[in-house]
Amino acid sequence: MQDLKDGEMVINLGPQHPSTHGVLRLELITDGEIVKEIVPHLGYLHRCFEKHAESMSYGKVIPFTDRLDYLASMNNSHAYVMGVERMLGIENNIPKRIEYIRVLVCELNRIASHLIAVGTYGIDIGATTPFLWCFRDREHVMNMLEWASGSRMLYNYIWIGGLFYDLPVGFEERCTEFVRYFKPKLVELDDLLTNNQIFISRTANVGALPLSTAIDYGCSGPMLRASGLKWDLRRVDNYSVYPELDFEIPIGTGAMGSVGDCWDRYKVRIDEVKESVKIIEQCLERLQKEFKRTPDFDPRALVPKKVNPKPQDYYVRAENPKGELGFYFVTDGKNDIPRRVKCRAPSFHNLSVLPEIGKNTPIADLIAILGSIDIVLGEVDR
Q1: Residue in 167, 164, 125, 118 with CA at minimum distance from that of residue 147
Q2: With CB atoms 3.0 to 4.6 Å apart as the test, which of 52, 214, 305, 343 could cross-link to 227 if both were Cys?
Q3: 237-241 long-range CB contacts below 8 Å, 24 or more apart?
Q4: CA 54 vs CA 15, 58, 79, 256, 331: distances in Å
Q5: Would residue 245 count as lying in a domain?
Q6: What pLDDT score does 1 carry?
């Protein structure tokens, strides 16, 4: 406070504020309407994920991974489970039907997550209709994932070595109906915002993130791709059955302003939803033709009764809706409880660049920049 210059003042934005997307507190030093400095304060949603992981078996950790990015629980558990399966050396034994179901539910969850990102972003800067449309369409995805797992948002569906349960009878047909319904709705949503002059004025040339800065801060996911780099772990690491699927990697081009601005970050997410729809269609086709359900198919056949990997340090990563989610395991081989599980949360790294790209902007633009990052405090604080 003693170092403040004439006309400067300290403002707290959050932690009780809808535009902070959770319990995030931003301490701002402002000169009039211009933000001179930003200090994020974290820790309001700390749930001790990493400490929990040190006190229970590998399988019992899965429900806690769901609560990291709670808008993309399937993707969280998929990454964690892949790591444990690789440490056990059983990743190549997983039946193709299970792998395609995993990718199917993860891409459905990716769509649900991006719909939240786009809908809440619209309402952050004054557009109410996209918020209502996104939540309407997300509800269909939530209903299907609840039908498959029995839970609406925190699924515990992807298990080490398999799945909690096979897809319900008729799921593939109902999912196909959703895709048929959703495609024209996605075009409407795209038209409503993408070329809307008010939306463009609020997002183009605002909060531009240079590629070199994004890399320096460890940004990933749509944040990194919007800055112009084609970096998607589904292609880079070729995990699960993604190498067998055809999809593109959208990147920012600066079509409405500069590369890596808020508009580019929005557009990358919209385009990713379209690519997820393509992936879902391919998964449904193969599940119905090549990897059909059979009476003797048991999704828990390879689920180990006790998980006890040999002593090792192992890092696994996956492409979550918000970026690279990683788990670093340290095992001692003495029991079925990991010695250490470190979570690399994409929202944490993406948020860390906010003080860099939010400097010398009006407070109203800072809200637009924060919304374009798409954070979930559950994985920022862990």
Answers
A1: 167
A2: 214
A3: 237/317, 237/318, 239/82, 239/318, 240/78, 240/82, 240/99, 240/102, 240/103, 241/96, 241/99, 241/100, 241/103
A4: 30, 9, 18, 48, 10
A5: yes
A6: 63
The pTM for the full model equals 0.95
Taking residue 61's Cβ as centre, other Cβ atoms within 10 Å add up to 24
Specify the CATH number for the domain of residue 370: 1.10.645.10
CB 207 within 8 A of CB 262: yes
- Structural domain including 349 reads 8-381
| pLDDT > 80? residue 3 | no
Residues in the chain: 382
**Tokens (6 digits) for 103:** 């990718």
Contact criterion met (CB below 8 Å) for 15 and 44:
yes
The answer to whether residues 283 and 178 touch, using CB atoms and an 8 Å cutoff, is: no
Within-domain flag for 2: no
CB 237 within 8 A of CB 290: no
Is residue 164, in this structure, part of any structural domain at all? yes
- Number of structural domains the chain divides into: 1
Full strand arrangement of the beta sheet holding 34-41: 8-13, 25-31, 34-41, 361-362
Domain membership of residue 1 (yes or no) is no
Contact 351, 39 (CB under 8 A): no
Cis peptide before 15 (omega within 30 of 0): yes
Can you tell me the distance from the alpha carbon of 202 to that of 88, in angstroms, rounded to the nearest whole number?
50
Decide: 221 and 321 in contact? Cβ < 8 Å: yes
For the segment 297-304, the average pLDDT, to the nearest whole number, is 91
Assign 322 a pLDDT band (cuts: 50, 70, 90): very high
As a whole number, mean pLDDT of residues 76-83 equals 96
